[in-house]
Write a structure and sequence with these properties.
six-stranded parallel β-sheet, single chain, 10 strands
Length: 257
């Protein structure tokens, strides 16, 4: 029902029918944006964003290397200025450990998990403090193993209690270790400019292409269990996406007058 918004932003395939319904019901007055490939073609919205490893292209399709997220340069700077004390208490060098899990591209085998834990142990033995966070996809056994590793090495594992220290973990990280299957966590990691070390994990063709592109940029390297130092220009596509939405929305609104 009216009044309809000037702008609708949605994410994922399940939102497509709703986006189309608002567009039609508003008589075309609402400008629509879909983030991620809608799998129904570029005509699903006025503007569609996809990562570079997706195939969708078109005059209204915006393509960037990394995914949009909330960890802007300003957010990271704020976390450095006002850090979470639980992370700041860890003696540098610090490594943010971002642990994912099984995805639709594959399930981690025991050898992947064992290698990951062994190499994290080696990293801690080299004097690097581990600040660990898991995700919704992290299996209970892997979460328990990470908890045991942190107890043994004296690092930190966020257990969901208290404020989420994730921004501080990345802001204060001298390096980031992240499992290979998560586009979002890797996109957030490479926004820091800190070395990003990618742990071996089952991934599909599209994710492998994403990692290859970041490797060519010099932002990621394979995680071998040792501290590494290298530099690159931080990657954050979020401002580019926001600017594209703002510019095209302004043109759409001007055309309505």
């Amino acid at each position: 029902r009216p009044p309809f918004p000037d702008l609708v932003v949605a994410s994922g395939r399940r939102a497509v029918p709703y986006v189309r319904a608002v567009k039609q019901s508003s008589g075309g007055r609402t400008f629509t944006v879909i983030l991620k490939d809608p799998r129904t073609g570029a005509g699903a919205a006025d503007l569609v964003w996809v990562p570079g490893h997706d195939r969708l292209r078109g005059p209204n399709v915006l393509v960037t290397t990394t995914a949009p997220h909330r960890l802007s340069a300003a957010a990271l700077a704020g976390a450095r200025e006002r850090p979470d004390g639980r992370i700041a208490a860890l003696a540098p060098p610090r490594a943010a450990i971002l642990v994912g899990g099984d995805s639709r591209h594959g399930r981690a085998e025991e050898r992947h998990v064992a290698q990951f834990l062994e190499r994290l142990g080696s990293l801690a033995a080299a004097g690097v403090a581990l600040a660990v966070t898991t995700s919704r996809r992290t299996s209970p056994p892997l979460r328990d193993a990470m908890s045991g590793l942190v107890r043994h090495t004296g690092g930190f594992l966020w257990d969901g209690q208290g404020p989420n220290p994730y921004p501080t973990m990345l802001a204060l990280a001298d390096m980031v270790v992240v499992t290979a299957e998560s586009t979002n966590m890797i996109s957030e990691a490479v926004a820091t400019g800190a070395p990003v070390l990618v742990a071996e994990w089952p991934v599909g063709r599209r994710q492998a292409a994403f990692l290859d592109e970041l490797s060519r940029h010099g932002a990621v390297r394979p995680f071998q269990g040792a501290p590494e130092r290298f530099t690159y220009e931080p990657l954050d596509s979020t401002p580019l996406i926001a600017e594209a939405v703002a510019v095209r929305l302004a043109a759409h609104l001007a055309g309505r007058r």
